[in-house]
């Protein structure tokens, strides 16, 4: 690594990716494809409708207490790879571009980008932005922040976003130029999330490996600044008075994130007012909270998440694709949605939601989804496939955590389906925190064959999903190897035209679906509770990378 002002350059050998291009969490999201507070069904017969926002606040407010199901692993953007991490960090640290509530993008810490040729990206950095310590942000800070994703010493979970980067250089006081080894049109799209976060170069150097932990915190540019972290209890942020975007200046003086792993305790705290709000509402609490309009309002909003089974060992029981197909066919997904999610979910055969394909033409998106194979509920066919594969009586370890009722119900239902077709599941229950490590630590997955994930994309690009299933990728948890698939994904990176890139991505998606690398179960939506003291936040998955809490004020 060279000096910050000089940038980064490497030889034309492929960078060994140590990170993933999408975000994962080992939980079952509570929700479906739309919703808002109110009656049991809307005029179209659905249980809920999407809300674009909540009412604007009428006043500022001194403090907000926000509930979360688990504690962040880190507030270092290089390791922010889960819902708790990004729920907090998005209000403190900002990216080069913003991810808006409707999943479009707009300028953030970069005011513009040029792509003069397929190998060059030139970013104009916003002037007049201050870090929380009062120093001014420059291009040098952007370079230093980006360099961490290619540093083996850092080991960023997001390094694969930088896999095709040859150099990162400061080419002006407020200009950064990134040169690619080969064309990569996913790279720029990824900068709306963690790969595009900018932190103070001085603080990064001074804090070293302690950056982002409970004692050091972070030094960024967001509308809130880090104040304190009581491990296992809470994280407190305070309003940053010198925030550059006065249109998004924080309306709350302070927000405290409180960790309540027990879903029932969290739900009770919403109703009593101990907690003012929260995302990811347990599905078995949705109807209770919708009915309690005196305590607050429940909202349903845009999401990019798909609930899936992940086969983490493709050398054992699930080595044969027929066994993976059989397990998918043994699951009555409509019944699972009713039991686990109280009907607040939508069955899908895809690993992505349609809204992340919004750069492509609608007809091309239709073709992509129509081409995916469907595996309807069929126990007899599933049993036949297991017998044909010689897998009757085969054991497998199914990892889980008691995060909420939906998680418990889903695991039991899938395990029961496995038994119905002749497989022998062993459920391995672990703590919430340990379960999360399954997605970042290969050693933690040793001996585990199956787990559940709610996987959301953090860019308007379905290629982000399929890139993580390539041979050797950080999030290719089962070690799947398909040269044809790898070739399609790698070629898609270089396609500039969104329609043509979508066509190539669709071919890769079909291969992954046929091989059942992951088993999609259903789509979810963002669920959000706002108690009767507060309003203003948007019910959208963009809360992962947008300073959503700045919009919260008093009713």
What does this structure look like?
- Helices cover 26% and strands 23% of the residues.
- With 555 residues, the chain is α+β, with helices and mostly antiparallel strands.
- The longest helix is centred in the last third of the chain and has 18 residues, at 498-515.
- The protein is globular, with a radius of gyration of 23 Å.
- The termini are far apart.
Task: Describe the strand arrangement of the main beta sheet, using strand numbers.
Answer: 12-13-14-3-15-23-16
Number of strands: 25
How many angstroms does the end-to-end distance come to? 50 Å
Task: Note the beta-strand portion.
Answer: 15-25%
> How many H/I helical runs?
15
Radius of gyration from the CA trace?
23 Å
Main sheet attributes: strand count, strand direction, barrel closure: 7 strands, mixed
Point out poorly predicted stretches. Answer: 1-45
Q: What do the pLDDT scores average to?
A: 90
Helix content: 25-40%
Class computed from helices, strands and strand pairing? alpha+beta
> Which shape, going by the Cα principal axes?
globular
Task: Provide a compact summary of the structure.
By secondary structure, the protein is an alpha+beta fold.
């Amino acid at each position: 690594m060279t000096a910050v002002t000089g940038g980064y350059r490497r030889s034309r050998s492929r960078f060994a990716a140590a990170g993933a291009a999408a975000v994962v969490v080992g939980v079952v999201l509570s929700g479906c494809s739309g919703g808002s507070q109110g009656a049991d069904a809307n005029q179209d017969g659905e249980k809920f409708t999407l809300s674009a926002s909540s009412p604007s606040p009428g006043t500022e407010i001194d403090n907000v207490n926000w509930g979360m199901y688990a504690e962040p692993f880190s507030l270092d953007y290089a390791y922010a790879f889960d819902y708790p991490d990004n729920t907090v960090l998005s209000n403190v640290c900002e990216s080069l571009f913003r991810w808006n509530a409707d999943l479009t993008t707009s300028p953030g810490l970069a005011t513009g980008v040029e792509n003069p040729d397929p190998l060059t990206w030139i970013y104009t950095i916003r002037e007049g932005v201050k870090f929380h310590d009062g120093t001014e942000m420059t291009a040098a800070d952007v370079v230093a922040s980006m360099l961490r994703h290619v540093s083996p010493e850092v080991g960023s979970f997001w390094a694969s976003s930088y896999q095709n980067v040859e150099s990162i250089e400061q080419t002006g006081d407020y200009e950064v130029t990134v040169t690619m080894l080969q064309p990569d049109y996913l790279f720029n799209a990824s900068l709306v999330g963690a790969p595009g976060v900018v932190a103070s170069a001085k603080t990064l150097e001074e804090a070293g490996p302690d950056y982002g932990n409970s004692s050091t915190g972070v030094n960024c540019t967001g509308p809130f600044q880090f104040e304190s972290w009581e491990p296992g209890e809470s994280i407190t942020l305070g309003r940053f008075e010198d925030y550059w975007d006065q249109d998004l200046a924080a309306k709350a003086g302070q927000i405290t994130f409180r960790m309540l792993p027990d879903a029932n305790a969290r739900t009770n705290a919403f109703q009593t007012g101990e907690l003012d709000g929260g995302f990811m509402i347990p599905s078995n609490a949705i109807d209770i909270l919708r009915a309690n309009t005196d305590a607050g309002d429940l909202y349903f909003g845009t999401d990019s998440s798909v609930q899936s089974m992940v086969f983490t060992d493709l050398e054992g029981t699930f080595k044969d694709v027929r066994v993976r197909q059989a397990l998918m066919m043994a699951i009555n997904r409509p019944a699972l949605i009713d039991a686990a999610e109280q009907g607040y979910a939508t069955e899908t055969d895809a690993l992505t939601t349609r809204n992340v394909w919004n750069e492509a033409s609608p007809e091309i998106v239709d073709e992509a989804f129509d081409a995916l194979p469907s595996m309807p509920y069929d126990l007899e066919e599933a049993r036949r496939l297991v017998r044909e594969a010689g897998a009757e009586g085969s054991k497998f370890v199914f990892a889980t955590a008691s995060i909420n009722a939906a998680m418990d119900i889903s695991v039991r239902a899938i395990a029961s389906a496995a038994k119905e077709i002749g497989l022998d599941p062993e459920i391995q229950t672990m703590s919430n925190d340990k379960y999360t490590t399954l997605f970042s630590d290969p050693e933690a997955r040793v001996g585990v064959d199956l787990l559940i994930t709610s996987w959301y994309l953090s860019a308007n690009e379905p290629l982000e999903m399929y890139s993580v299933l390539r041979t050797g990728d950080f999030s290719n948890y089962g070690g799947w190897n398909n040269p044809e698939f790898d070739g399609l994904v790698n070629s898609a990176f270089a396609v500039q035209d969104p329609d043509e890139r979508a066509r190539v991505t669709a071919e890769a998606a079909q291969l992954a679906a046929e091989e059942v690398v992951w088993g999609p179960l259903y789509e979810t939506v963002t669920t959000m509770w706002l108690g009767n003291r507060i309003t203003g936040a948007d019910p959208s998955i963009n809360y992962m990378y947008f300073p959503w809490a700045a919009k919260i004020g008093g009713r």
